[in-house]
Amino acid sequence: MSSDILTASQLNSGTSTTGIQVVARIRPSLQHERQLAYPCIFKTNQCVCTTDPQNKLLTSEHPFDAVFGPESTQSEVFSSLQQNIYNALCGVPLLQINYGVTSSGKTYTLFGTEQQPGLLTLSSQFIKQNLPEARLFISVVQIYLNQVSDLLNNCSTLKALATQADPLPGRVFKEFRSETELNQLLKKALALREQSATNNNSQSSRSHCLIYLVIQHNDGQNQLCFVDLAGSEPFQATQSKICQQESSFIRTSLLMLDKAIRDLKNLSSNNSNSVSFRSSQLTMCLRPFLQPKLVNTKFELPGSISLILNLHSNAEGFYSNKETLNLGLLTKEIKNYAKTPSRLGQLGQSVLQVAKSVRSSMSMNNSMNASQISELDEEYIAIRRQEWDWVQEQFSQLGEQLYKMQEQVEDEIIEARRDTVKEMQELMELELQAQKDEYELELLEKDEEIRKLKTALGL
Ligand SMILES: Nc1ncnc2c1ncn2[C@@H]1O[C@H](COP(=O)(O)OP(=O)(O)OP(=O)(O)O)[C@@H](O)[C@H]1O
């Protein structure tokens, strides 16, 4: 293991400049949806291709970090997020946003179904498998008509604060020890979420939902935030007043999120120097994950960000889906120089894969019994624990070094100040001596003049 251990500089060489991960997912057509003779949004390799339903000749290709077509499974989509979850195990905060027009599959991707669990369940399974000794907590809040409420605390109102490190103090975190407990908590919270039937979705989310997972391990903790945005749709005069109000709030808050993303992009191309978060409750809540920090002329985000662009190939929503794609392309241009232990993550991933394949080939060959397999599991967990301890140790050593350097610098400043005072004293003494000599010379001269006058007067 020792030859595999990475040094701090190797860890730093894992600095991520790739920015924000942008992934696209096109959901399958639903039964009631009209099928076009040709799809207006489809996947080729790593690109989303579009054909304008009003002019077949207008086609374009949009490349992203990963593209998932209608046949993709929840696990395949999760695999694109896995590295970020691994980094989260090493202490890098994660913001995962599901973005898209109404009925594009945001809620399905995040929460899934009992048979097809979504990103949230798959992420917590991955955390449990890789860090079995960690404790996991969850908090669920919704933002509805610009009001934030705690879905794990009977919808009690929360006040989003623009200046605090945690913009939502006082929200409830519940611990879960198993997938069943997680599902129970989610079921309870989502039953309180604002949902209603719209023209496009019989169960459209009318509120933004933010799910926070906290990993607590040893003395440290890290936070992951998953966001299921509310369904945005164009203004419809036929809607009820409350529906129009909801739609207008959703559109405005999404515009503010788009603006914050645009500000981040301009910041990374040096066209501006600030990002506005105060404009909506949504951006205020996301600030801890989006607030950039300028370090040595480059700016760093607080952690990893993953944006999933949810899309459908309905001709009716074509132009709104194009706007989603445009936001994705803009997001891809954001640079993030934050250090992520990605090399460590890759090492861990390969250890994980080797362990998995060894385990499956062993059980296939029936060459090992259950106790040997569990021994292997324990060995693997011990390796992971060692790896985690090593990361913790590196951080505490770095902390100690910084502290010592700070003390040294302070000592040097005090010493330098002391020397300066001494030098000033010496200079003042020299100056005083020079003045004294001058006065004495003047006195001698005056004495001489008096003596000459006295002689002249015959005294
Ligand atoms: N990948 C998928 N496979 C199968 N069905 C899907 C998939 N994605 C979405 N669906 C189905 O499409 C419908 C709309 O999905 P969903 O409610 O997740 O959309 P949404 O973007 O969250 O909508 P809204 O913004 O209105 O809340 C649902 O019936 C859902 O089950």
Automatic annotation (TrEMBL):
Domain of life: Eukaryota
Domain Kinesin motor residue range list: 19-334
Coiled coil (UniProt feature): 427-456
Any one Gene Ontology molecular-function term assigned to this protein's record: microtubule motor activity
BP term (GO), one: microtubule-based movement
Binding annotation for ATP: 100-107
The keyword Hydrolase is assigned to this record: no
Family annotation (InterPro entries): Kinesin-like_fam (IPR027640), Kinesin_motor_dom (IPR001752), Kinesin_motor_dom_sf (IPR036961), P-loop_NTPase (IPR027417)
A single GO cellular-component term on record: kinesin complex
Keywords assigned by UniProt, alphabetized: ATP-binding, Coiled coil, Motor protein, Nucleotide-binding
Family as reported in the entry's similarity comment: Belongs to the TRAFAC class myosin-kinesin ATPase superfamily. Kinesin family.
Record-linked PANTHER family: KINESIN-LIKE PROTEIN KIFC1 (PTHR24115:SF578), KINESIN-RELATED (PTHR24115)
Protein name: Kinesin-like protein
